[in-house]
Specification:
Oligomer: single chain
Structural class: mainly alpha
Order of helices and strands: EHEHHHHHHH
Distance between the termini: 24 Å
Radius of gyration: 18 Å
Number of domains: 2
Strand content: under 5%
Largest sheet: 2 strands, parallel
Shape: globular
Helix content: 40-55%
Length: 210
């Protein structure tokens, strides 16, 4: 959501309450970000319009989705009239950040099925971007693409992730996802071109500069 001015505290609380009410009523999970219009016109990762200390670390990827028509227009100007088109270097930075996020969960021993599903499907989206230079694809679509393009070694894992994403995972699926999360993320890392300015190039954890 792009807003012209920062909501006051009362308005921000009403927005959050509305999100919670709709999510409960419709059984949906909100993935909403509010950004000030002035910040949206720049390529720098913007801060949230009213949640202190938060910034959009996938700003280039989000802009690519909007400019590809993957949004719901509620009111006001179209995204193309506001946000700048992302450059390939900006997209590459965001893709590395997303991979670093997954690597951090692996390093910390996180076996949450939700994080494992995210890692498999978003890792597939990263691979799709590497192969096609197109980041404007959903996680579900990326999983289907990976099922067609990755070796059979990963097919059972990808199918399990698809079922988990649809809320239909079996206990066997969950066990497989938590086991395969680390090797899948490592495979994505092997395919992602390295950057000279990555923290890993300096002997630091990759997410040190996240």
């Amino acid at each position: 959501m792009i807003v012209n001015r920062r909501p006051d505290e009362v308005t921000a609380q009403k927005i959050e309450a509305a999100h919670d009410a709709i999510a409960q009523e419709q059984s949906v999970e909100w993935d909403v970000w509010y950004v000030l219009a002035d910040d949206a016109r720049r390529s720098d990762a913007p801060r949230h319009a009213y949640r202190e200390g938060r910034r959009d670390t996938s700003w280039a990827i989000n802009r690519a989705h909007w400019l590809a028509g993957r949004y719901v227009h509620l009111f006001g100007r179209e995204p193309a009239e506001i946000v700048p088109a992302p450059t390939r270097p900006e997209l590459d930075v965001d893709l590395r950040r997303e991979l670093e996020h997954m690597e951090r969960h692996v390093a910390e021993g996180d076996t949450d099925p939700y994080e494992a599903t995210y890692a498999i499907l978003n890792g597939s989206r990263i691979l799709h971007s590497i192969e096609t230079e197109n980041v404007a694809i959903s996680k579900r679509e990326a999983g289907a693409w990976a099922l067609e393009h990755l070796p059979s070694r990963w097919h059972a894992t990808l199918r399990a992730a698809a079922r988990a994403y649809s809320g239909q995972a079996t206990s066997k699926d969950i066990a497989l996802l938590t086991t395969e999360m680390a090797p899948f993320v490592a495979m994505v890392r092997e395919r992602l071109p390295a950057a000279a300015d990555e923290p890993a190039a300096k002997g630091l954890p990759r997410w040190s500069g996240y």
